[in-house]
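Example record for the data management plan.
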Amino acid sequence: MAKKKIIIGSRGSELALWQANHIKKELLRSNKTITVEIQIIKTKGDKILDVALSKIGDKGLFTKELENALLQGKIDLAVHSLKDLQTLIPEGLLLAAITKRHPVEDVLIARKKGMTILDLPENGIVGTGSLRRRSQLVHLRPDLNVEELRGNVPSRIQIFLSSKWDAIILARAGVERLGLKKYVSSIIPTDLMLPAVGQGALGIEIASDNTDALEIVSALNHTETEIAVLAERAFLRQLEGGCQVPIGAYAQVKSNGLYLDAIVGAVDGSIVFRSKIRTAKTHPEKTGIALAKAFVKAGAGKILNDIYNKR
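Corresponding structural encoding:
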């Protein structure tokens, strides 16, 4: 009997291909009746590298072309960095599995080992393409200057090495998955900088009528990670955020409940709202929505409205 072929759609960057190959290995480990092929699909976000993410203004920046291929039946699964996947899944598609999360922190890549954000020279230059990082960084260190940084992980590191900048900030997960840990000066603790929603987790998206794919990928779902990121994604969705908004969130499942820590900041870091909530683990999306409503009540809605109105 012929094995069923599963086609994974992936972006072409080194990190995206690492992720797709990781899922391929996990699928083959858990299912002996399939073969797996990876198909590279370029997304809008891969093609536009000279414009800040916050200015492109497209929530499906790194996902739309992959989702179209799913809807057209050209691929069976799309593997995403969950932080890139919009919180409203398009009709006809399903977030079928969320993998076990890698450590969520951001990392500082600077000129020497052990350097932290607090140690950076006065009026130093830091590269990042993330408004979330920019807001939290300049809130901590208003003297720092932030430069726009785009591209895949290895190219961002190379841009830094050939620049006169003092540091760049990247996600720990991407750096470590690509074996580039030697460049890390320090891990930025979450009490100083909260990660992007879903950071460190992979999301596997399928067509909602593809029952074979659903059965095959369900073995890769990690329940604890799923509970955590459902709370984070509900928080973001309630605030209608995306790449254009400085929002961070980190949920953790512990023995005595679900903890959600979140932040909303002005782009210039002048105002930052941060709060946390603990609830039962049973309704993670309600947790995210409740915290988002508390943020709006506290005044974070004004920051978000100002950002949306300036687009």
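Summary line stored alongside the record: The chain has three domains: 4-99+201-221, 106-188, 235-309.
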